[in-house]
UniProtKB/TrEMBL annotation:
Signal peptide coordinates: none
Superkingdom of the source species: Eukaryota
Name the record gives this protein: Surface protein with EGF domain and furin-like repeat protein, putative
């Protein structure tokens, strides 16, 4: 089928070239000649041969039934609609009104073919009058059959933007300009209408309402004209707009445009606002809990006080007392018999009546989860969590604790020791394991082996690291861990000694003080080159760097010098310093060359060690047998392996006398020995007057050398 559109009276008109073609009519679907298929409906859809259902449908809209009978068209013997009075001089009237009176017709499309058994005449064209407005000429076309005895007339018309409440089509067949009356036959008639939404007085091609009927307003969310809801108002665009959520009714969109309030809100007439009621109130006449008019579910209304109340133990109730509960506040147990919500006195919340049904505890008690009890004190391997008010387990390394981490220990299990609130198997260097208290105690003699279980430069270690000279941690004031070797390296690269867990760095010095095994000299190694100190004499240098007590044991006439990283002290005979004596430097006197911006004020390992000189050898000269007329002479003439330091102390004692001797003589001998000891004499003379003949006397020489060696001869 071919078709073309032409203009007639500014309307789109469809012209069909072949009369036996037609469009199917399926309501709400298809592109109906320019109408919007979403809102277009098929009113008439008759195409020969006529069915009874077509006739029944057309009866609703045709003003008379003259042409609604099945008749045979003489030309082709097909069943068309016609009738005896269905003639060229009678108009055909079709009227359509939507079933809902508030439904407007936006546009329509009508199409029909009528035939007549007569000789063709192209000047005869049907007239269409729509709502009393005629359309003629180019809106319809007349055609003749092939033998000039068959004629038919085709009309198609699309009109939009009508916005009318009904349609009346009057069709004047062949313009009534035929001298002879002919019976007409209806071969096809189709009518589509596009409707606006109900209650819309005017709409566009997409059925968007442009104007609603009076009393109806455009709802944007549904694209319909409806009465405004109770919680809406009509805005300046004549549209329904929602009130503020607090308002039940309103005259504007804001919270202060309320006219009435939703349940649970109080209307303040002065401000036209809705104020929330107290949570206990369902309705109220004010914002306070004493303004209730009715209660939220589960509360009891006290009319005298206008309050909604329950006992604090009740969640819901039917009275104000603790025996009026219907359900319980969280954590309380409901006793259905007494209608009360209770717990054991120790429990704050519970799931039963006994002390073993606690869920949380009263003040001053702690929850023991294993037994569901509230206790005054937790088990030894637990701690009271004050925030949660619970007994919580200690870390499994702790015997007791004040927190749940491994660094919250207060005491330890056997074979582990408390250090910095950690339980360790090996105490750090500088601490000693106390097997009574199971603690790591600071050492007095922190250089002793008992106080240094790990390798010397470590702070802490485990058992497997001891043999490999490896560490877990370092004293970070002067050392840092080397992760590749697990060793503590000195931050001062000059100090490569591994004699102590600290090392010489900046203001800290580790001392290695040794008394010589061969000469009277004290060598003090500080591990890193020292700045020289200007002094008048070697003796004055000593007084510039040592405290008075140290100077006293070094001897006032001893001489000091700084040699690279050492301080050398040449000891005089007056020196009494010995192994295990402490030496103390004056703070802020010495400096390392690499750290000239700071003075040394902290000294570690300030104890004196003695290089072993070997076993001391003493030789005396005396006569084993002496004439009673002669004095006894005993003289020390040789001493070896004393590093040239001689005696710290000596003692002459009378050990034994065999033979007859008076008490006076014996006491005199003892006095001679006492004076020799006091004077540290290494030779002894006893006058013969104190020695009777024929006696055997034994004298013992006890000594302490300055190299810390003792002996008896």
């Amino acid at each position: 089928m071919q078709k073309e559109f032409i203009q007639f009276n500014k309307q789109i008109v469809l012209k069909y070239i072949y009369a036996d073609s037609y469009n199917p009519c399926q309501p709400g679907q298809g592109n109906y000649m320019g109408l919007n298929p979403k809102f277009t409906y098929c009113i008439l859809n008759y195409v020969e041969p006529a069915q009874q259902s077509d006739i029944d449908s057309m009866k609703k809209y045709f003003s008379d039934m003259n042409c609604l009978n099945q008749n045979v068209f003489p030309y082709n013997n097909l069943q068309y609609l016609s009738g005896n009075s269905c003639t060229t001089n009678n108009d055909i009237t079709i009227k359509y009104t939507p079933s809902n009176q508030n439904t407007i017709i936006y546009g329509f499309y009508i199409y029909f073919i009528i035939s007549v058994n007569m000789t063709s005449n192209q000047n005869l064209q049907s007239i269409i009058e729509i709502n009393k407005v005629p359309y003629q000429s180019a809106s319809g076309y007349y055609y003749a059959g092939y033998d000039q005895n068959y004629s038919f007339n085709v009309n198609g018309l699309l009109k939009q933007q009508q916005n009318v409440d009904s349609l009346t089509f009057k069709i004047t067949p062949f313009n009534k300009n035929i001298e002879k009356q002919y019976q007409i036959y209806i071969q096809q008639i189709i009518l589509y209408v596009q409707l606006c939404y109900i209650n819309c007085q005017q709409c566009d091609e997409n059925s968007v309402c442009l104007q609603c009927f009076s009393g109806y307003y455009y709802q944007q969310n549904t694209n319909q004209c409806l009465p405004c809801d109770s919680n809406q108002f009509v805005n300046q665009f004549n549209q329904c707009q929602s009130c503020d959520p607090a308002c039940k009714t309103c005259n504007g969109p804001n919270p202060n445009n309320c006219l009435s309030c939703n349940i649970g809100l109080y209307y303040n007439q002065a401000t036209k606002t809705c104020i929330i009621c107290d949570p206990t109130c369902n309705t109220c006449d004010g914002p306070n809990p004493t303004n209730c008019l009715s209660c939220s579910p589960g509360f009891y209304y006290n009319q005298a006080t206008k309050t909604c109340i329950c006992d604090p133990t009740c969640k819901t109730c039917d009275g104000p007392n603790p025996t009026n509960c219907l359900s319980c506040s969280p954590g309380l147990y409901y006793n259905q018999t007494t209608k009360s919500c209770i717990c054991d006195a120790t429990c704050k919340t519970c799931d039963g009546l006994s002390q073993n049904n606690c869920l949380s505890c009263s003040s001053g008690l702690y929850y023991q989860q294993a037994t569901s009890q509230c206790v005054k004190s937790c088990n030894k391997n637990q701690f009271p969590n004050e925030l949660l008010q619970q007994c919580q387990a200690c870390d499994n390394t702790c015997a007791s604790c004040d927190g749940n981490n491994s660094n919250n220990c207060l005491s330890c299990y056997p074979n582990s020791f408390l250090y910095n609130k950690n339980c360790v198997n090996i105490c750090p260097n500088g601490f000693q394991s106390n097997f009574t208290t199971l603690t790591c105690d600071p050492c007095q003699n922190y250089w002793s082996l008992q106080c240094n279980p790990c390798y010397a430069n470590c702070k802490q270690c485990d058992q497997s690291q001891i043999q490999n000279e490896q560490c877990q941690t370092c004293y970070n004031e002067t050392r840092q861990i080397d992760v590749s070797s697990n060793r503590c390296l000195c931050k001062n690269q000059n100090d490569q000694r591994n004699i102590f867990y600290q090392c010489s760095y900046e203001n800290i010095a580790v001392i290695d003080a040794k008394l010589s095994s061969t000469s009277p000299q004290l060598s003090i190694d500080l591990g890193s080159p020292l700045m020289n100190i200007i002094s008048n004499t070697p003796q004055s240098l000593c007084s510039q760097i040592f405290d008075e007590a140290t100077l006293g044991i070094l001897g006032l006439d001893s001489q000091c010098e700084i040699n690279k990283n050492k301080i050398l002290v040449n000891l005089s005979d007056s020196s009494t310093i010995m192994e295990n004596n402490s030496i103390n430097f004056l703070p802020n006197k010495l400096q390392f060359i690499d750290y000239t911006d700071t003075f040394i004020n902290t000294f570690y390992r300030n104890i004196t060690f003695q290089d072993s000189p070997g076993v001391p050898q003493l030789q005396f000269s005396y006569n084993h047998i002496e004439n009673s007329c002669n004095s006894i002479n005993i003289t020390l003439y040789s001493i070896q392996n004393d590093a040239g330091r001689k005696f710290m102390s000596l003692n002459w004692t009378l050990n034994q006398i065999v033979g007859s001797i008076s008490n006076e003589q014996q006491e005199s001998i003892k006095e001679i020995l006492l004076k020799a000891s006091q004077n540290k004499n290494t030779s002894l003379i006893i006058d013969p007057k104190f020695l009777p003949p024929n006696i055997n006397i034994t004298i013992q020489f006890n000594y302490l050398l300055k190299i810390n060696q003792t002996g008896t001869q």
